[in-house]
Amino acid sequence: MNLQKYKSYMCRCGALLAALFLTAGLAGAQLQRKILVLTSTNSPTGNAVEVFELNGTATNTLSLADTLPTGGNGGAGGNAGILQFKGDLGAVANFGSNNVSQLVRYDDFIRVGRLLSLGSRCTKPDSVALTDDQLFVVGANCAQSYAWPLGYIDGTAVSLSDPSAAQIAVGKTWAAVTMTSGSVLQLPLSHEGGPLAGTSTSITLPADANNTPLGEAFWGDVLGFTPAHSPDSFAIVNDDRDVFPVVGPTPPYPTNAPCWVAKGPKSVWYTGNSPGQAVSIFFSDAQGGEFYKSVPLPGVPTDITVSPDQKWLAVIYSGSDGAHVAVFAIDSFGDLTPFATSPAIGVASFSGVAISE
User: Fold this and answer.
1) Which residues pair with 40 in a beta bridge?
2) Average of pLDDT values for 198-214?
3) Picking from 44-48, 119-123, 252-256, 291-295, which range would have the lowest pLDDT averaged per residue?
4) Which of 52, 134, 246, 344 has the fewest CB atoms within 10 Å, i.e. is most exposed?
5) Cβ pair 65, 102 in contact under 8 A
6) What is the DSSP string of 204-266?
7) How much is the pLDDT for 59?
């Protein structure tokens, strides 16, 4: 082969390789993981995680992809956040077995990992929260933190004299526990993003926003929670424990009661309004907010979550034929459009809900 032919040959090969690499790059860019929605059966005789796959087609679907026994028993009630997912790892509490099951995502599949036992003084876990480095768990008599994902107990546990804990959530420098008996506890972290420091302080709630605190979520270090049976059924709390109540949908409890909370995009908060059978939406800044509107559901919601990219909202609810998961698309203003609902699968009610992307 002479020099000119060799140069021509090499140019054609280089062009072919460049085209192949470009095609592979485009294919990789277009390849996206499936959107999975997880919830738990919370069965006292054998808890399981139900994994649903969200599909956008001519007829959008939310179909059951897998059922995963957790290795423990459920049985919690009046709680939220019993199942959480962050990145490729999740956790679900087994109320009746005093342990927590680690969940792991491999490509488009979820598997159950190790079982994490509670500390010797802690029982009946009913809510968990996740950060990059910590798992937080609250139960009947204590809150504690674990190094994550290694799973060993980290920080100092916080004893609870009141067994009415409904949910634990965590911000930048503090965690919060809602107590259905009528209080919210501030639990400092040992440092930003770290484990529990071992102390708690009760946040003083005003009379118009202290009846049955249930759901909660953080926006940085600002907490939003629902004193569900109060006239002001939503409230904002900063790290100085200043409380800013917000009037909810009317008429108030027992007709409406925003119970469960998820933080949406920008200043939007979504709440599961159980007696109102709706998702009730609020807007806020760091010093208060206002009720926007309610989006109806065909059943009673029992927990709610927003996807990591804040484009999807999932809410679990119980209807006449059993438990369902409903998924809504979130637009740029925070409004909701119904997208898909799971079929009944023979489970009366679900507990906890999370989205893995």
Assistant:
1) 49, 351
2) 97
3) 119-123
4) 344
5) no
6) PPPGGG-S-EEEEEEETTEEEEEETTSSS-EEEE-TT--EEEE--SSS-TTS--EEEEEE-ST
7) 86
- SS3 (DSSP) at 46: coil
Question: In Å, what is the CA distance from 337 to each residue of 140, 300, 325?
Answer: 37, 18, 15
> Where is 4: in which H helix or E strand?
helix 3-30
SS3 content of the chain, % helix, strand, coil (to 5): 10, 50, 40
When pLDDT is averaged across residues 274-297 and rounded to a whole number, the result is 96
Instruction: Provide the residue type at 38 as one letter.
Output: L
Long-range contact list for 177-180, CB < 8 A, 24+ apart?
177/138, 177/143, 178/213, 178/214, 178/215, 178/216, 178/225, 179/213, 180/78, 180/212, 180/213, 180/214
With contact defined as beta carbons under 8 Å apart, do 80 and 352 qualify?
yes
Residue 30: phi, psi to the nearest 5? -85, -15
Q: Could you read off the pLDDT of 38-53 as tens digits, one per residue?
A: 999 999 999 999 999 9
Q: Give the closest residue to 258 by CA, choosing from 246, 266, 249, 267.
A: 249
Tens of pLDDT, residues 113-147? 999 999 988 999 999 999 999 999 999 999 999 99
Beta bridge partners of 84: 91
Ordered by where they begin, the domains of the chain are: 34-356 (2.130.10.10)
